[in-house]
TrEMBL record:
SUPFAM superfamilies: NAD(P)-binding Rossmann-fold domains (SSF51735). InterPro entries: NAD(P)-bd_dom_sf, NmrA-like, NmrA/Isoflavone_reductase-like, PCBER-like. Pfam families: NmrA. This is NAD(P)-binding protein. Residues 4-247 form the NmrA-like domain. GO terms for molecular function: oxidoreductase activity. It comes from the Eukaryota. Keywords: NADP, Oxidoreductase. The keyword Iron does not apply.
Length: 306
């Protein structure tokens, strides 16, 4: 059965607005899931109001009322219990496909990432939960399927927010392991486009992790594009990724948010080479890499305007 009606939760987050825009421009009828106490407004979208506690029976009822076929979870990957409740409701209703909150910097199927950061244990936990439904019968309805997108760092957002360790405002580049490590990263609109492609359920996209990227480059290549766009030379700070992580990880585990961001930023650069270590799904989904010069131009303009 083809997917017609799609529900999205997390439409006001970092990635959610881009997904909502792409869905609204797609053939699918889109609904935004909004908790009862939320102040978020979506004037150009159909909204399904759900209980704050995500009561499974109530959410199932809402899904059935709107004949939801696919559920996209764009909330924080740390929200394990919330995702599991929504998955339970998806299974109990007529939802055919769930896309978990896998999007982001690192790969939760990578044992090194799981050992390094609790967040990726959470993402694996949700994915394992989805796997447990693959063979469960649903009273004659098709089995529940899932697809998780592994995107690498949010590329354009990361450029503007120093996630890629190059500070456009301060003109400083922190180069991990010499800055010559290839890494995969994805622009927000590209990820949103990938989500829409997955809804078409191409063969090979069900019950699997799909690795995608809009850009594949090194920090040095990125820095060269930024210096060309700005017409300015940046200070270069060479650093050992192992030493940076060794320094910041203990503080991250104690709840230091800045240490967490640094650890994720560095690890997402040195561990996310989808061409070198994974099977890139760009071809499967009909996606092409994007021009780094155009992304850099937009990012520099946005940073200067902020």
């Amino acid at each position: 059965m083809a997917i017609k009606n799609v529900a999205l939760i997390g439409a006001s987050g970092t990635l959610g607005p881009s997904i909502l825009t792409a869905l609204n421009g797609s053939p699918y009828k889109t609904f935004v899931l909004n908790r009862a106490s939320s102040k978020s407004k979506y004037p150009n979208s159909s909204v399904i109001t759900i209980p704050d506690d995500l009561d499974v029976q109530e959410v199932t009822k809402r899904f059935n009322e709107e004949s939801i076929d696919a559920l996209i979870l764009a909330i924080s990957g740390a929200h394990v219990d919330a995702q599991k409740k929504l998955i339970d409701a998806a299974f109990a209703s007529k939802v055919q496909l769930v896309m978990p909150a896998e999007f982001g910097s690192c790969d939760s199927a990578d044992e090194r990432s799981i050992a390094l950061m609790p967040l990726y244990t959470n993402k694996r936990d949700v994915r394992d939960y989805l796997v447990s439904f693959e063979q469960k019968e649903r009273n004659g309805r098709p089995k529940l399927t899932w697809t998780a997108l592994v995107t690498g760092h949010f590329f354009d957002w990361g450029l503007e927010n120093n996630l890629l360790r190059i500070d456009i405002n301060k003109k400083i580049a922190h180069l991990a392991d010499g800055g010559n490590v290839k890494f995969s990263a994805s622009n927000l609109s590209f990820i949103a486009k990938a989500v829409v492609k997955v809804l078409g359920q191409p063969e090979g996209s069900k019950n699997t992790l799909l690795y995608v990227h809009s850009n594949y480059l090194t920090q040095l290549e990125l820095l060269a594009a930024i210096e060309k766009e700005t017409g300015e030379k940046f200070e270069r700070v060479n650093e050992s990724s192992a030493e940076v992580i060794k320094q910041h990880r203990p503080k991250m585990l104690e709840g230091d948010h800045e240490a967490y961001e640094t650890t994720v930023a560095v690890w997402g650069i040195v561990s996310s080479d989808w061409i070198g270590s994974k099977k890139l799904a760009n071809g499967l989904l009909g996606l092409e890499e994007e021009k780094v010069e155009e992304v850099v131009r937009r990012a520099v303009q946005n940073v200067k305007a902020a």
